Amino acid sequence: MSSVLHRNLRESLPVAVRGAGIYLFDRAGKKYLDASGGAAVSSLGHGHPGVAAAVHRQMQALEFAHTSFFSSQPAEELAARLIALAPQGFGRGRVAFFSGGSEAVEGAIKLARQFHVEAGQSQRTRFIARRMSYHGNTLGALALSGHPGRRAVYEPMLMPAAFVSPCHPYRYQGTNESADAYADRLAGELDQEIEVLGPETVAAFIVEPVVGATLGAVTPVGRYLARVREICNRHGVLLIADEIMCGMGRCGDFFVSEQEAIVPDLITVAKGLGGGYQPIAGVLVQERVAEAIARGSGQLAHGHTYMAHPVACAAALAVIDYIRGNDLLANVKRQGQLLEQRLRDAFGSQRFVGDIRGRGLLWALELVRDRQTKEPFPQECQLAGHIKSRALEYGLVCYPSSGTVDGRLGDHVLLAPPFTIDEAQIDELIAKLSSTLGVEVNAASRSGRWDERR
Ligand code: PLP
User: Fold this and answer.
1) Which of 101, 452, 427 is nearest to 247 (CA)?
2) What is the pTM of this model?
């Protein structure tokens, strides 16, 4: 029996021992096509010799120096690189480095609060997020995550937060409503929520520009984010863009905020930043926010032992340099178009696929029992869980999730393959996904209840 407290205490997982490109291998020698980069982490794929060498070099030169006493060369270079890549208008901002996405979101929450305190507005304590969002599992990040299933156990312990609607055209845009009218309606809802809370009490609004894990690759409509930026500006509310899943090249550019022509006050990044080679995350802090703290107390009120770890920063630098040096974002765009085309060809007319959506190399299929009514499969089918196991059996790692509709009902499959994927590998991915869905969805449709068909 394993002594590891796994996420699922009842299932027995294959043991991964090796990775090469877009493939993983387990102890028994079985090969898996990693179509989701774990959870949109492995941007360069596995076993990249250049990143491994950079990590090794840094380990030999300097493994650790506490950030209370020293800076390090990789941290300085990485921060400068990220600020140079940040959306136009970000100014001479700064970056705080952390060890994972949830830590970065905690950092962003605290930086937003500290900014207002330093600016003499200490009454700003409230945060607004969106329903069905996910920003992490630590208590602060979870408090801003609007996914009922993920919050359930901890609900009584979470700090209060306000929630507005996600921008989710497949389910909520009216049939006769234009994209602009829908964007304006949502912006109006945010504006109204700020008014109800009292604009002088609101610290920040947090948004995932492309929603990843909870809704499945939902992209914003037209001017939605631009309107959100306007409203936050009008009320002195900071805008936090959580690009932990969708950023760092996953959607075809380093930042989705840049694609959407908005300049957030804070941007969180993780996952693809280190590409899985080291645990690393960051909060990019716009110049005016960093300056307010520099002019005020001059001290971060928040910190961790492993902030800006030199080895983690060296890995992230190597990942970014490889992406830029090899023009991998062009491949993300090219292969992203091909992946979309292949998904539409294979699943576009399948009765159980309600929606195919995404951007760059972040795509999802939303699975429904009835395409017309968009009715999801019953929860008892446990469709997402069974797709995950079946896919593994067929040598495919994808990222199916349940609760897509309301945190309880609904299922989708998220795909986020490495940026290095080629055409033949996309075909292999589609073939394996087709076989998996063919078996699992048909079985669920026939019985309606998983247990009954065993
Ligand atoms: N924010 C977003 C948008 C995420 O997708 C995730 C993880 O999936 C997180 C935050 C939390 O990151 P981590 O799991 O590294 O703590």
Assistant:
1) 101
2) 0.97
